[in-house]
Write a structure and sequence with these properties.
The chain is mainly α. The protein contains four helices and no strands. Helix content is 84%, strand content 0%. The two termini are 24 Å apart.
Length: 106
């Protein structure tokens, strides 16, 4: 019984010390805004590129540009990459959620 009482205050002092350490950290919101903007722009460009690759490149005429013509003639990778994007993102989102749960409940 005495040992349990000794653990409680020690744990509480540790938590208050950790809270004091985190209270003095300056938070830079401008960096968060920049990173968020970059993520949104990359997601928009990726979506636009995949949409062009899957739909619009098949409808447009040949351009005599090697990369754009390769995208037009491709019938395998244009479906493979977007198809794999969903399961891979699901795995990363799940692992992120799981790691946060372990972190919060440890």
């Amino acid at each position: 019984m005495c040992q349990q009482e000794a653990v409680g205050p020690r744990k509480a002092s540790y938590l208050t010390q950790a809270a004091r350490n985190n209270a003095h950290v300056d938070y830079d919101s401008s960096l968060t805004i920049i990173i968020g903007t970059v993520i949104v722009i990359v997601a928009y460009l990726t979506c636009t590129f995949c949409l062009y690759w899957i739909v619009f490149s098949k409808l447009l005429p040949y351009t005599n540009h090697p990369v754009l013509d390769w995208l037009k003639n491709d019938h395998f990778y244009c479906v493979l990459f977007p198809t794999l994007f969903g399961p891979i993102m699901f795995i990363f989102v799940y692992l992120n959620w799981l790691s946060m749960k372990y972190f919060r409940h440890s």
